[in-house]
Amino acid sequence: MVKKIALLVIGDEILNGRTADKNIHSLANTMDANGYALGEVRIIADDADTIISNVRDLSERFAYVFTSGGIGGTHDDITFACVAQAFGRPVVQNQHAYDILNAYYRSKNMEWTTTRLNMTYMPEDCGLLNNAVSLAPGAIVDNVFVCAGIPRIFDTMVDDALTHMDGGVPIYKDSIFLNGVGEGTIGDTIAEIANAYPAVDIGSYPHFTEDGFSTEITVRSRDKNALENCFAKIKDYVLQFI
Description:
This protein is an alpha/beta fold. The protein has helices at 12-15, 23-33, 48-61, 79-86, 95-107, 114-118, 151-162, 183-196, 224-238; strands at 4-10, 37-44, 64-68, 91-93, 121-123, 127-129, 138-141, 144-147, 172-178, 201-209, 212-221. The chain has a 6-stranded mixed sheet, sandwiched between helices. Helix 2 packs parallel to helix 7, helix 3 (48-61) packs across helix 4 (79-86) and helix 8 runs antiparallel to helix 9. It is elongated, with a radius of gyration of 23 Å. The chain starts with a strand and ends with a helix. 29% of the residues are buried. The model has no long low-confidence stretch (mean pLDDT 95).
């Protein structure tokens, strides 16, 4: 059984169009490559009640949950506090996070400000997600990974989160491109093959250029034998068109 993942994108700036989200695509690719399936994505506003209710719901329904956004130190960064409340934990200063940032600020001759200090207050007894870009860590609370919204930082936190996850099932893939062959020509038989191999996800993708129609057939499965047998059947069928 492939473990399902959820992503909770938090931020008014996403909903009002000021910022284009890039983390959905990135997480989907990373989870797929590491044997997990992104099962649901929600985009919500910076509203405490909404964040709390969604974190609780998703954490109960999915093996792992990622959140993105709202973990900086400014007044509108409320994700840490909301995730803490969702799990009935207080927000406390995390000594490890403080030590990480204190060493960095001292090396740069930077002073502690309230905004910087706020980034060390996290859900009690949380684990930390490594931030190789700006060092301010994310958090691990039960099965929820609380990540930054900035794509470059989000990606490095996801990479660290993978070291805390288990049960990934590899996915196997293959494809074939049929130049000059439209979906209408092969669609009926490909559908029959798909019905015969329910463990294999068969995708049919049309292409159109000035030279005419072409079709790309892709196969994906967690079951290697099923994929190989299915793809062999597809190749035997489309050989007449090549």
